[in-house]
Amino acid sequence: MAETATHTADHASEHGHETSTGLTNNKLAMWLFLGSECLLFGGLISTYMLYRGRVSDGPHPMAIFDIPFTSVSSFVLLMSSLTMVLAVSSAQRGDDSRTNLWLTITAVLGATFVGGQVYEFTAFIREGLGFSTSLFGSSFYTLTGFHGIHVSVGVLMLLSTVGIIRKNKITGNKAEVVELVGLYWHFVDVVWIIIFTLVYLIPS
Amino acid sequence: MSTSTEQHEHGMTDAGYIKIAIILAAITALEVSTYYVDFGPLFMPSLMIMMVVKFVMVVSYFMHLKFDSKIFTFLFYTGLGLALFVYITALATFKFFIS
Amino acid sequence: MAIIERPGTSTTPVVVTPQQTLGAVKRPVATKGWREWLFTVDHKKIGIMYGVVAMVFFIIGGVEALLIRLQLAMPDGQILSADKYNQMFTMHATTMVFLFAMPMAGAFANYFLPLQIGARDVAFPRINALSLWLLIIGGLVLNASWFLGGAADGGWFMYAPNSGPIFSPSHGVDFWVIGLQIAGVASLLGSINLIVTVLNMRAPGMSLMKMPVFTWMILVVQFLLVFSLPVITVALVLLMLQRSYGATFFDVSQGADPLLWQHLFWIFGHPEVYVLILPAFGIISEVLPTFARKPLFGYPFVVFSGASIGLVGFGVWAHHMFASGLGPVSVAVFSVATMAIAIPTGVKIFNWLLTMWGGKIWYTTAMNFAIGLVVLFTIGGLSGVTHSVAPSDTQQTDTYYIVAHFHYVLFGGMVFGLFSGFYYWWPKVFGKMLNEKLGAWNFWFMVIGMNMTFGPMHILGLQGQPRRMYVWTEARAGEGFFNLGFWNLVASIGSFILAVGVLFFLINVVITARSKQQAPLDPWDARTLEWLTTSPPKAHNFDRIPVVHHLDEFFHRKYEEDTATHTMKKVAEGEDLVRAEGDAADAHIHLPSPSYWPILLSIGVGLLGLGVVYGIPMMVIGFAITLFSAYGWVLEPSVAEEIDFEPSDNDGNTKEIAPLG
């Protein structure tokens, strides 16, 4: 081999052209992870679909869903996808301050969504839908709670990325790191697109 | 990656992203309107179509799947396809789609 | 580790180490002693640790099996109480499936996959270490339950609602649910890691269709894991929420559907069956051509049948539920799908037979185990086809016939494949040959023991002895040839013969470890790239990255076709090829550096999981450790920066490190 130095592992993947497919390891891994997550959320959504009409006790779904409220928080999450993609785009141009700005806005929108979910949960509990009240209650809180945890992890990742970029402590390719966080964030958003329709808009 | 391929790889401008977001917002508004307006027999199919369109738009444009390597598309849609297959089959054995 | 400087032809590469990367936190640097193993990210060391862990659990699971057979040897057994018996068979199966079979396949995959594709490590070395430590933590949590109020007792499939708090009040199932979730995360990370490794880190020239079959089968297995593990995770989460937080998913009085668990479990559980067997198929697809001295017959068929087994494996799960009242349409559909999956499996069997056909077969222990797999797996496969016929299956469900079937497939198939791999690759990993004479004892005791143990179970099952019953009575044992007592005794004696066979292997390992005799570099006249380096391989695997031109690259470097006679003629010795690689070594090789974070992170996750049983404070501590390690991980470059490397002193050594031997 003509090269005097041979890099391995993550190191090589920072320069995608050194890998067999020309794609970076990190991005391949992220897409695989998202493919896997499809089956995770698929299972939770199916459980909810199977059980949503089974209300032995407590309120029925259509009696407590606040569609206008959830529509607004869905819209907030949807728009956070736009700000996220603008962050990725800024990162690819190498514009750190814009990147940080858009990432922060995305995190704020995400936190707003989580806040809305917390408010929704407390309202539902007040109206008599506990975690153990009915099959509907258990499966509803599990599905949306799981999604909420994903959003919260995403918010943490966004804020951490901002911090790391500001301190210039990033390991690896900056634009790629932002892009990976973005892929995760958009996935969480598309899961909500499905939940919003199947759980909230279609009456059981 | 060199800068010349950058544009090709992520072939969208910020204005393009905003356009996509506006379309997504419009579809969402339409979705919510089904709650207030009676769509009759079109209710279920229209909601499902709008959901799928939104899903595909975010995945294709915001997640760059349309501009990126086909391997990513393969990995993600394999997971999605398997999920649809196994869970719809499982729900079918519960006679979910009959009632 | 870290950067290995190889000035020209020097035989002792000097290890230069990072002194400091994160301000206060120094990176681990040891290349000797326990620290070397605890913080390593070297896929070979991780592979060996996987193997050791799996072997320990194999022995634990084996002892559990022997206790079960002791209990059933005589009518009205007194060895175990009904409750202990339930725990015993549950933990036997759980241990063997999740803590022996999968990690042992992981050991082979970790060690040989990068070597077979000509890579220096896996794609994510630290995640690789994390997978190992999470698996160990998961295994400890699972088995800790024995000492903390009793182990899980619901069978390895843990059918809900039977596994709910009413029927299983001890914390056993809680530990089981938590342990398997942790082990599941470990497998998921491992599978993503290995897929990316195969896709991205192949040596130049190694297209997908030039990859060794073992690598191919491991790739298929990792895809199965990526897409099936999340399903069992859903099931485990639902059960955990039900048992510990009052959810109602499996509460029939609330209108729950008891089949929900069964569907989720078997959507995962059936691909899992192929996760267990395909690595063994991969191993013997390397062993059979080597010892038949012929290329594998129909390589593309073996590859594509493996891939189609993987795909169809996702569409047959409900055949585990024929007796549950699915309805005639579902049963018919899944019955046909199940018959279909026998086709690619049969294709593989014929490929192996035709590989041996006309070959000059060299009967080593590795070869014996491989042939054993072909024979025993076929028996198990045929009884499997009888289950695909739903009316017949209804008769067989929950009898010993099923136990006989899956032990032929898993013991006769999977375990024999893994043992074949031990004998084949031992000289590669440890540089010493396992004793062939002891190997013969090992093999024949295992063959005889395994047939004596599981063969009679066909009869027991068809005579109606149910699985999972802790006693049988003389009054109902029947008479003559079909007497249950006789065959139960035979099976129990067989299980001890089997255990002696495994003991021979362990003795063989000890004797080999003490022996001073080094193995030749190419003892089997092998065919694939892992033999194109020293035994054991150096930390950086290959002195230079090989350029691949052929399927079975190593073979084609040794042999050339004689155009006159159309036969392959040996033109080079493997040993010389390996030496030539050393002479042409790359000058600087950067390897990923060791790290504290994988092991610390997995401890955090373990505490987080135990918090489900022991309350919020433990959960908070676990979460804090997890978060701290995650940040440490993110801020630490996987390969230490150049500035972290201190220039070496005159002897070529840094302060803290000795040269790599």
Quick recap of the structure?
The complex is a heterotrimer of chains A (about 200), B (about 100) and C (about 650). With about 200 residues, chain A is mostly helical.
Question: What does this entry look like structurally?
Answer:
The complex is a heterotrimer of chains A (about 200), B (about 100) and C (about 650). By secondary structure, chain A is mainly α. Helix content of chain A is about 75%, strand content about 0%. The relative contact order of chain A is 0.16. Chain B has about 100 residues and is mainly α. Chain B has four helices and no strands. In chain B, helix 2 packs antiparallel against helix 3. Chain B is flat. Chain C has about 650 residues and is an all-alpha fold. Chain C folds into two domains: about 600 residues, Cytochrome c oxidase-like, subunit I domain (Cytochrome C Oxidase, Chain A, Up-down Bundle); about 40 residues. In chain C, about 60% of the residues lie in helices and about 5% in strands. The longest helix of chain C is centred in the first third of the chain and has 35 residues. The C terminus of chain C is likely disordered. The chains are: A mainly alpha (about 200), B mainly alpha (about 100), C mainly alpha (about 650). Chains A and C meet through strand 1, helix 1, helix 2 and helix 6 of A and helix 5, helix 6, strand 5 and helix 18 of C.
Tag the structure with descriptive keywords.
heterotrimer, A: mainly alpha, Four Helix Bundle (Hemerythrin (Met), subunit A), 1% strand, elongated, disordered N terminus, C: 661 residues, mainly alpha, Cytochrome C Oxidase, Chain A, 2 domains, two-stranded antiparallel ribbon, 18 helices, 3% strand
Could you outline the blueprint of secondary structure elements for this entry?
The complex is a heterotrimer of chains A (204), B (99) and C (661).
Chain A: E1 5-6, H1 9-13, H2 25-51, H3 61-64, H4 67-93, H5 96-126, H6 135-166, H7 174-201
Chain B: H1 3-9, H2 14-36, H3 43-62, H4 70-93
Helix pairs in contact in B: 2-3
Chain C: E1 3-5, E2 14-16, H1 33-38, H2 43-73, H3 82-116, H4 125-144, H5 172-200, H6 213-245, H7 259-292, H8 299-312, H9 328-356, H10 365-388, H11 390-396, H12 400-430, H13 436-462, H14 484-514, H15 553-558, E3 559-562, E4 567-570, H16 574-583, E5 588-590, H17 597-614, H18 616-635
Antiparallel strand pairs in C: 1-2, 1-5, 3-4
Helix pairs in contact in C: 2-3, 2-4, 2-14, 3-4, 3-5, 3-7, 3-12, 4-5, 4-17, 5-6, 5-17, 6-7, 6-8, 7-10, 7-12, 8-9, 9-10, 10-12, 10-13, 12-13, 13-14, 17-18
